Every structure is written in C-alpha cells, then in structure tokens.
Predict the 3D structure of the following.
Amino acid sequence: MSQAKQAPAENEYQLALAEGFRPIRDVARITGVNPVTLRAWERRYGLIVPQRTAKGHRLYSEQHIAQIQAILMWINRGVSVSQVKVLLHSTVPTRAEADGQWPDSQWSEKSQQLLEAVSKLAERRLDDVFNSELALYPPTVLCSQLLLPLLNELEQRWRGQFGARLEQVFFYSWLRSKLGARVYHNNRQHTGEPLLMVNCSDLPMAPGLWLSAWLASSAQAPVEVFDWPVPQAELSMAMEHIRPSALLLYSTQPLNISQLPTLLEGCASTVLITGPTVTIHHAELQTLGARYSNLTIAIDPIIAMQVLADRHLLEDA
C-alpha cells in the first residue's frame, strides 16, 4: 500500500485519539477487562460495540468505558454476562437488583462442573470449563465468584476423605501450571520493577499465592514467584538482586514474626503479608503495621490486589 493511502487511515486514528477515544489496550488497563474478553462480549452478545477505523482498530469512548464498568457492577452482583444487555437498557433497577439479590446458579453450576472434573482427575475438562469462563469474565470476577469459593468447597471436602491427597495434588498442580503459564506470558509483555511473591508455607503450589500472581499479572504488573519457602533472613538478598516494587509474603501457617522488624527496617518497598497467616497473627501484624508504614496485610488475593492498587503498584512502568 502506498504512503498516500496509509496516511488517511493513520490520520483517522490519530484524530479519534485526539477527540478522546481510547484504543483497546488502554480500556483494558482502565477497566481490568482484557482485550480478549472485550472482543468476546462484542462478538457473542453485542455488548460494547466500539468505533472502528478503516484498518479495523477498535476505539472506545468514555461512554463505552462507563458501560463496561456498569457491566462489571452487574457481574459482581451475580448476573451472568448473557443477561447484562437487557439490564443496561432497562429503567431504574428493582430493589432486589439494587441490593444484589441475584441467584448464583451460574456459578454454582460451573463450580459443580469443576468439582466433578477434579474428582475424576480430568485435566482436559478442567481446562475446557475454565477457558470458557476466562473468555467471558475478568480474572478478578473469576477469582471471587468461582475459584475462591471452589477452593473453600474443596478444602472442606478433602478433610478425612479417602483420595483427598491425590485430588489436592492434581488440582494444585493444574492450577499452578495454568496460572503460571499466564503469568509467564504476561511477563514477556510487561516492563519495570516486578512484584516479588514468596510462598512462606511448607506446602508447595499454594493456590492463594498463584491466584495473587495471576491477578497482579493480569493487571499489567510484572511478577516474580518463589513457590518455595525462603528463610526470612535471606529475603534481603533477594530484594537486593531483584529490587521489586513490593514484596508479597504468602503463608497458610504461622510466620516467625520476630524476624519481620529486621526485614522491614532494611526494605524500602511495600511488604504485603497475605493468606491465612494474617488471621493467625492479626493482632501482632496490626501492631507492626502501626510501627512500620511499609507493612500492610490482606487476608485473600482479592483484598491483596486492592491494597497493591491503592499503593499504585499494579502499573506497568
């Protein structure tokens, strides 16, 4: 194509940007909904139909962004994406809708499908169910509505059940492989100082750690994961070499709290402690948090991401 023909298309794109339209990558960063999901909403349900340039580039207005945020509001209230379009064009929602009193049958059904796949050690079935939902829902929604409730149900089911250890190893291996691959792929596209996430539990493949890594990575942050306990005395060495924007310590069991002051005093970065250990040491960590401004806590991956976002640590430099 000649430069003369290319120029009008490029001018059209630049003019649209000057008028306030945004490309899909910016919309994904602002809303947390990745481009694949935005395209799926448009293609399958006619949701959020952007303006197109002559070369096919999608461009979104502020109204489109507001609509995406409205969709997320309904999804977080338990409405399936297939039902959202009607609600977006309806009048003032009913009291039940406003209070979020929606049936969670869609998530219960998907959770049951995943439970059955785990019980049969059916990796391909797990992949199929997860991939189909990942194409339609942002990672934060899948984590809060499907994966965290599923983990809670699995942990209750595994107590004293024959074959529980086999199921646990199978599911944790699948989860780490699945989320680890996505973190690896996303890291190739991100720059800047990474978030360093360390598993401080004796249990490898900790799901809460990998969910945190996946959510942070999906929010445009580069992530480094150490899925094996590192002595707290040696963490300073890792901090010196990697120079992370923040250090996330995940644990399902008690920590050596007496060593934390040394770590905090020698660390300029935010130190976020998350996982069940927060409940175990809540009072002690609250006391330390009042003393050290770089220490913060979060009980689960969703809250951890909110803490990191509030501190502007989920931004690709």
User: Anything to note?
Assistant: The beta strands are 22-23, 51-52, 58-60, 195-199, 223-226, 246-250, 270-274, 295-298. Residues 41 and 308 are 28 Å apart (CA to CA). The mean pLDDT is 88.
